[in-house]
Amino acid sequence: MTNEARRARALEIDPSNGGCLLLPNEPPRISLDDFKRLLMSCVYSGASDVTIQSDQQPRAEISGLLHRVGRRPWSPTEVDAVLAETFQAPNASAEIKGLRILDFSYEINLGEGGKQRFRVNATGVHGFDGFGVEITFRVLPRTTPDLAFADISEAEAEAMSPRSGLVVVAGATGSGKSATLAALARRHLENSARPVKIVDLQAPIEYAFCDIAPIRSGSPSIVGQSEIGRHVESFAAGVRSALRRKPHIVIVGEARDLPTVSAALEASLTGHLVYTTTHAGSVAEGVRRLLAVFPAKERAMRAGDLAASLRFFSVQHLVAKSGGSGRVPVREYLSFDDPFRESLASVPPSEWPRKIKDAIESGGADRPLRQSLRRAVLDRLKSKAIARRDAARLIGDIDESAMEDA
Q1: Which of 144, 157, 358, 397 is the most interior residue, by most CB within 10 Å?
Q2: Model confidence over 192-243: pLDDT tens digits?
Q3: Rounded CA gap, 45 and 62, in Å?
């Protein structure tokens, strides 16, 4: 076990001091070892996020509440040293002062093969003496999620695992899209009947798959991960490189712009299975957003490529569990089978949202691969997994007749 991990301990909350998590024997100046010890102590205390900001005490969020960590603010020099260490570049603070926002991952080696990973964002902020830096560490699970953790049924997983084509997982920031993609990748890697090569492009890398038995034991399956801004310049460049690496599966962390969407479509049309994410509140909106990245004069032609590529589109929301800790996913989804893709290709793209909405609304218990958000919410409510007030935030007022139909 590394020195900083050996010294890390869960911190007790001191209610008499405004809920502070107090560090024992806090040094007058924070060293990099002290920083790692503090970060791991916050993890052991149950923190989901840790914020370090110039001229401020660090903060840790535990069970949705913020707590100050330590007794004194950290100087800009101490925060700059933390940024240089975690971003692995001595000029990291200069990048921030150049108005760049840094998204990356950071990892602490715990010894004996154990590691703790963090998703990190570094952004410039106003400091007491001018320019400051805020660094936010999102604590990532140490185990790769599986289908059970992501609450994905086997029928959904099978529909989301075609031999080729485009599978999209959409949702707002923090809706669990990365966990869903990781669970699907794990399923492929653990399928000994069909070894696969996966190229995984993320910004940043959240799940490293090191805990999966096939990867640890050296099975034929392999995953190569590249972080945007550290290993490759952009998602689009990463996809173009992937096509020369002969993968079976390409995971594109986010389809955020025209070059990325174009590259993802090219990969899916040339026989690869491509997973990606986007921000959307419904399947119809998500497809519309993908189409909207293309210039108007190209949209009709590229719509044909999208129709030919799409295999499954899911939009997920995370809702607080009723009467307990944690959250559960609520999903709207649609499987794009051959007849439906042909029906899309036969009409102008402007009519796609209506056709998609009609297709989803026509689904029911007998068509599990077409589920509306309303049905998903009512099913969760009927099973008492979520509270009525949270259900109403997603689908509006709910009357008893709706519950009887669920």
Answers
A1: 144
A2: 889 999 999 998 888 888 888 766 676 789 999 998 888 999 999 999 999 9
A3: 8
Q: Which residue has the tokens 């959904």?
A: 156
Secondary structure (3-state) at 204: coil
The count of C-alpha atoms lying within 13 angstroms of the C-alpha of 363, restricted to the half-sphere facing its C-beta, is 20
Residue 43 contacts residue 56 (beta carbons within 8 Å): no
Query: What's at 182, amino acid-wise?
Result: A
User: Three-class SS of residue 348?
Assistant: coil
3-state secondary structure of 174: coil
Predicted model pTM: 0.82
Give dist(CA 356, CA 290) in Å, integer: 14
Q: Quick one: 233 exposed, middle or buried, by C-beta within 10 A (0-12, 13-18, 19+)?
A: exposed
CA atoms of 80 and 96, how far apart (whole Å):
10
Instruction: Report DSSP letters for 223-273, one per residue.
Output: EEEEEBTTTBS-HHHHHHHHTTS--SEEEES---SHHHHHHHHHHHHTT-E
CA pair distance 372, 68, nearest whole angstrom:
42
Bridge-partner residues for 148, per DSSP?
none
- Nearest CA to 156 out of 388, 363, 384, 403 is that of 363
pLDDT in tens, 234-280: 999 999 999 999 999 999 999 989 999 999 999 999 999 999 999 99
